[in-house]
Structure formats: structure tokens, C-alpha cells
Amino acid sequence: MPSPSFKRSELGMYSTVSEQLKKAREAKGLTLAECARYLAIQEKYLSAIEESEYHRLPGELYARTWIQKYASFVGLSPKECMISYEKELRIRSKLQEKKVYSRKPRYGNVWELITLRRLAYAALVLIFFSYSGYLGYQTLRPPRVALNVPMNGFRTYENSIILKGQTEDGAEVRINHQLITLGAGRHFSQEITLTNGLNTITLSARKKHSLPFSASVVIVKTPPPAILTPSTTGPLISNE
After folding, report:
1. How far is residue 94's CA from residue 97's CA, in Å, rounded to a whole number?
2. CATH number of the domain where residue 199 is located
């Protein structure tokens, strides 16, 4: 049996099935055409086997069958050739996987990293503007005021009413444009003198940088009811 040749290829220092078959055929002084006629295999397929271009064969089953027939014809062990063929397929498969992986753009991780950074940046910007908006709202929001006042259009003959309420820290309260003093818990209570007829009471509250709170109520002061007293004189008599 001729000794197989070894040469460096993409499979490394390894004698492929193709190289072994070609070397054995040449050692016997046979041409591809002669082998093709004897084996009843088209010459182009034997050439593909000797060039390790198995993709040119009709299929995997044909490749295995023809390699064994070819090996037996040129004096090689079909079994040993199939072992080499299986090994060659595994090596080629691994090489193909590496090639496919190497062809993949290496920008994937970079783009993923950039995308994550963009998302993180967008989240920070969103949080910043949300917090800024919240602070702005809290700064500009009119102060809360709870009032205990009569209904609009309330009628009374009393000379005054008591206006009560409560506001929040940092707010000042004015009633009819007059600043009033706040008590504990930011409560206030103010007596309002009424005049006959319509009395418009305006309350406003404001913090340092906020928008103002404003409310008004109209109180109607009516004359007190007349008190009837019994007459001390008799009925008027007329001769008319």
C-alpha cells in the first residue's frame, strides 16, 4: 500500500481521504477516466472526491458509497478511508462554524452596549425632567386652603361674620387685601364687619413663588326684622 502523503491545508497536518485516493490512483498508474469506466461513476464525481469538493456530489449517501468503492479499487481500506472521511467532516464542520462566526459583524455587542447606554441615558433624562417638573409644580402650585364660610348669597342681619380656615406652611393669607395673622397649625379666624346690602369677601393665599389661590363669597346683610309693640292708644275714631 503506498504511504499516504501529508501536507499542510486548512485541515492542518492531516492526510485527507481525497489525497489518499489520488495518491493511490497515481501509484497504480490509473487515470480518472479509467477509474470512472471501471467503477461506473462519472469522472466529474471522482474528480470532486479527489478535490474534497463533496458538495458537487449528488448527496451524502453517494459520497460514502463511492469513496468506499474507489478506495477498494485503488487498494486502500474502505473502513480506514471512512474513518478518515468522518474525521474530515467533523473538522470541516468546526472550521465552517468558525468562519460563520468570524463573518458575523463584531458590532453587535458594541451596538447592544450603545443601546443600553442610550436607554440608561434616556431613563436618567426622563427622571431628571420628571423630578424637575415635580419641583416646578410644587413651587408654582397655589397653596391649599380649607375654608369654613357661608354659602354664596347667604343672607343675615348680623353686623359681622367669622371667616375661618387653614392653609399650608409658607403661605400668607389675605382677606379683602388685608394680611391676617395665622395661628397654630396655620389656622386662621377673622371677623368680617358687614354693611347693609351686598358684601363681597375676597380671600387670597400665596407662597413666595407660587401662583395665587383666590376665592370670594357674597354675603347679603338685610335689615333686622321689625319688632311690633302693642299700641297704648285706643283706636282712631273718625266721624267721616
Report:
1. 5
2. 2.60.40.10
Q: What is the pLDDT of residues 142-158, one digit of tens each?
A: 888 887 877 888 899 89
Query: Count of domains in the chain?
Result: 3
- The 8 Å CB, 24+ separation contacts for 131-140 are 139/209, 139/210, 140/209, 140/210, 140/211
Q: Which residue segment(s) compose the domain that 123 sits in?
A: 111-140
If you average pLDDT over every residue of the chain, what do you get? 81
Amino acid at 75: G
The whole-number pLDDT of residue 112 equals 67
Contact status, residue 103 vs residue 22, Cβ threshold 8 Å: no
pTM > 0.85: yes or no: no
> Angle at Cα 176 formed by Cα 172 and Cα 177, nearest 5°?
50
- What ranges in the chain are assigned the alpha helix state H? 17-27, 32-39, 43-50, 60-73, 78-103, 107-140
